[in-house]
């Protein structure tokens, strides 16, 4: 796999038009760029709209990036709405690679559709240990997200890669437990909205536990998201908005009658060094998916430059994008970085 990056639409368009029959291509770009490039995309190209791009030169915004691969390694499947309509096609593609420990699924979703958990649950036929990495496409000013398979716009898609080189998935959280928990006592799971914690209005109780005024709660979302416990793993659920009735909407589902953990931020650069230091091998290629809320935090605190130095020292053949949510195995996360490592 080879990371590519283009500074202009003309450069990316020429690359699409010159793509040979033995190559596939996945490109990440702004919604406007994706719309323009879709007119020139061959069937072996996938386009995904983003909030920012990660390139072999580091974090950028407003460029086009992605990766090229041998076309016979991949099987691209459109995921319809509802996702169960695509179960047989996904199952057939999975059966071709299920015996390969290096295979993985790249899952790209409509970041405004709120369907990530439903899509993941429709993959019930897959081994829970089968590698799934993904991100949710970001929107433009009009709230539209864009995913294309060639010139055809789709809502969601999956690409099964039948790899021979070793692969690994790495998830990074830059948040730690505070020791404080909240019991979800009333929630709309599919609407991703919590109405009450501990039997009290959600926003007021969330603010009380943080020790901040309720009217300032939204200012603490970047620093104090909530964590959902899955066995030995912690999956972040990021709050999106506070409503006048005291309800809080999240970027992922939060279940009633479960406990969530209040989190606080750690030193992101120290966590990154630990993440990269724990890699099982030196990769030849890295796909890097970062949440838009991490981007906001890193931009606010001026961290991208130091992040790039560490990441590109780890592997210069790196690409990725800023997403509206991350897929990691059978879970949908927020405020997270997911890395695919190819040896």
TrEMBL record:
Residues 20-201 form the FIST domain. This is FIST C-terminal domain-containing protein. Coiled coil: none annotated. The lineage of its organism: Bacteria, Bacillati, Bacillota, Bacilli, Bacillales. PANTHER family: BLR0328 PROTEIN. InterPro entries: FIST_C, FIST_domain_N. Residues 202-330 form the FIST C-domain domain.
